[in-house]
Each structure stands twice: as structure tokens, then as C-alpha cells.
Amino acid sequence: MSSFSALLKRDLRLAMRQGGGAGMAIGFFLIVVSMVPLGVGPDLNLLARVAPGLLWAALLLAALLTLDRIFQADYEDGSLDAIVMGSMPLELAAAAKSLAHWITTGVPLALSAPLMGIILNLEPRAIGPLALTMLVGTPAISFIGAIGAALTLVLRRGGLLTAVLVMPLYVPVLIFGVSAVKAAVSGPVPFEAPFLILAALSLASVVLSPLAAAAALRAALH
Amino acid sequence: MSIMDYANPSRFLALSGRLLPWLTGLTVLFLAAGLYMSFFTAPADYQQGQTVRIMFIHVPSAWIAMACYTLIAMSALGTLVWRHPLADVSAKAAAPIGAAFTFLALVTGSIWGKPMWGAWWVWDARLTSVLVLFFLYLGLVALWQSFDEPARAGRSAAILALVGFVNVPIIKFSVDWWNTLHQPASVMRLDGPAIHYTILLPLLTMAIAYTLLFLTLHMAAMRNEILRRRVRSLMQQRADAAQNIAADAGQGGVGQNVGQPTEQEA
């Protein structure tokens, strides 16, 4: 467990000192969100109606662009080989790196979402649920994304492929994330039902994804 | 044990070479019978008219689309657990075929939907989950194509196939949920209480024909894949030999032209 926290701390420190990681993702998030009114027109009622779905989709895109950071730098400088050969189970290492990705990307994106909501005229009472669903849903994005990042690790031009591989797997997260926000505002279903399923998706992916990510790393570095 | 006997690609080639003509013949027979029944003997539906005939092509495609992904997942298990050398070949050969059947199901469904629902595409739960299945197939094919070395792609693709297989029911469930939330009961369903035998008989014949067609295509694609890998390794051997000769000759410079196909060392 100490090696787990050591790896986690190392990744957090690296992300902090390199900078640019979360900031870039948030910048991308903001730009995608502000492209939407330019595309669909400045009608505030329309924007308010589509805001939850758009924000979630934009969050997915912004998170996708950062997935290669989970393993790429460590692969390039060789520290990933050291991690693979070390005494820590690779599954645990994959979990630590996914968790670090969530803390450095998922959480900042989720916390910045309310701000983006204001641009899209999101209803005030939807802002709390939006941030909450994103906080609960982003672990699934980081952990499932780690599988895609591990699969495409050794490939050149892997970034686009990661998106193609991982996007279909995000469909449930997107659906239940948006459902929960909509349910909190107007929906016929109570907020708890989709929210709890979203939480279950996140928990399941936290448990299962490191297994697949570690297997993919072993196949890649074989 | 019987599967492991055919782990030897040469033995598989010999057996499939003998089976393939028979499979092809049976496929043609069943397809001809099925198509004749679908277009001539099956009655037009009292509600859907002639468009019901699209179902004879559409429904079996959808069945094969799902069955093929199951086959890929089983092959993936064979690659990862037993390291069966043909499992990888089977999965790789099946993926484009499965994608084609999924595409066929989507297109025929869309053609059927235009007169029935008045739109080429509606975001019905089934359509959407089949569309996501199509994306999963495309991801698999893309992953295979991104690797230079087929042996390295095998394990990665197998992991992706299994991850996708675990996710398919979850995606199906979530899309069903999403659909009932968005557009309750706007979609007419084909599955009545019972299908009359005049429709059921051509449908089942077509299902058998499609299964045979899939098996034929899959077996032929597996043979091609095995042969392709052999050609590849022969080319590599030749390139290596040529490189050695060039190196023995002494000076570099000539050797640059020789290693043309690939210059892999490890």
C-alpha cells in the first residue's frame, strides 16, 4: 500500500510541476462549450435545454485528450518498465495512475463545469447536481480511459485511436450522468435512480478496469 | 482436445480446404431457397405491405452481428487463457465480417424505417445499441490495423474484445433506459405474439443461410490470414538473408535497398 501511495504522490507531483495538464483540459472544455452557441444560435431557452448533455459530452472530449498522459511519459522515459518489473502488482500501479489522472483532470474538469454551465444558461438548480454527477462519474472516465491508453501505448499516433476505442465504452456514463442532471431539474424519475447507477458504474470500473489496463500494459511491453 | 488438435495451422488449412467447398455449396443452396421464399412465397404483411420482406434480410444480419461478437469474445479468451494460435486468427478474421453484418443490419433497418417511421434514422434503443456495437467492431479493426506485428496485436485486441463484451449488456441496458426516458412508446415493434409460419419459415431459412454464409466467410478469411502471415514471415526471412549477404559483402550502402519490407530486429 505504501508503494501505491508513493506512486500516486509521484504522479500528482509530476502533474503539478509540469503544469499545463488540467489547465489545458479546462481550456479545451471552455472552447468546446463556447463553440456550441456559435453553432446552434444564441437562443437562451434552447441552450438551457441542451446544456446538461452538451456539458457532459464536452467533458468527455476534454478528458479524452488527456488520457495519453496516464502512461505515455512514463513509457517514454523508461520508468514504466521499472514499475512493471517492480514488486508492486501492475494492477495496483495501473489503479494508482488512473486515480492520479482522476485527481489531476477529472476533479478540475468537474469543478469547472458549473462555470461553463453559466455560459450555456444552465438552470441554477441544475448546477449542484451537474457538479455532483460529474464528480461521481469522472472516475469511470479515468479508469476506463486507462485501458484505452494502455492498449495504444506503443503505437504511434495512438491518440485518435484511444478515442475511437474508448468512446463507445463511455456511453453508459454519459447516459446516466445526463439523466441524473435532467432528473434533478425536471425529469419524471427521481434523481437518486440514475445517480446511483452512475455511482455503480464508477465503482465497478474502478475495480475492474485496472485488471484490463494491467493486462494491456503487459501485452504492450511484452 | 479436439480443438487443440487443430491448433496446428497446417492441419487447419487441410481440414478447412476440404470443408470449404461443401460449406459454400450449402450456403448457396440455403440462400437461394431463403431468398426465393422471402421474395415470392412469403405473403405481404397486412400492415407493413411489401416492406416486411426487408425483415428477412435485416433480422438474420442482426443475429449474426451479435453472434459474431460472441465468437470474437470466445476467441479472445482462447488467445489470453490458452494461447491457442488459431484463436487470434479467428478473432481477427471475424471482426471485419461482423462489422459488415452490423452495417447491413443498420442499413436495412434504416431502409425499413423510412416507410414505417417516416425517417431514415430514429434514436430507437435497438438502433442505438447496434450502432454502438458497430463502433466497437470498428475499434477492434482499427486496433488490429495499427500494429505492424500481428502477434503483438493479438493480445491487445483480445483484451479490448473482452472489455467490449463485458460492456455490451451495460450499454444495452443504459440505452434502453435512455430511450424510455426520452421518447416513451413512440416506436412500433415488430414482435407480435406469434409470427405466422408463412413468415417464420423463410425467416428461419434465411437465418440458417446467414449462419452458413458467416461460417464460410469466416473460414475463408482465417485461411487467408494464415497464408498472409506465412507470406509475411517468408518475406522477412528473405529480407534477413539478403541483409546478411549484403553485410558479408563488406561495405554498407548496398544494404540500404535490401531491407525493404520491414526492418524489425526484436
Structure in a nutshell:
The complex is a heterodimer of chains A (222) and B (266). Chain A is mainly alpha-helical.
Features of the shown structure:
heterodimer; A: 222 residues; mainly alpha; 83% helix; elongated; B: 266 residues; 79% helix; disordered C terminus
Walk me through this protein's architecture:
The complex is a heterodimer of chains A (222) and B (266). Chain A is an all-alpha fold and 222 residues long. Chain A has one domain. Helices cover 83% and strands 0% of the residues of chain A. Chain A has ten helices and no strands. In chain A, helix 7 packs antiparallel against helix 9 and helix 7 runs parallel beside helix 10. Helices cover 79% and strands 0% of the residues of chain B. Chain B starts with a helix and ends in an 8-residue tail after the last helix. The C terminus of chain B is likely disordered. By secondary structure, chain B is an all-alpha fold. Chain B has one domain. Chains A and B meet through helix 8, helix 9 and helix 10 of A and helix 5 and helix 6 of B.
Beta-strand content of chain B = under 5%
Total number of helical segments of chain B? 8
Mean pLDDT over the full residue set of chain A? 90
Structural class of chain B: mainly alpha
SSE pattern of chain A, N- to C-terminal? HHHHHHHHHH
Q: What percentage of residues of chain A falls in helices of 4 or more residues?
A: over 70%
* Uncertain stretches of chain A: none
How many domain regions of chain A? 1
Question: Low-confidence runs of chain B (pLDDT<50, min 5 residues)?
Answer: 184-189, 253-266
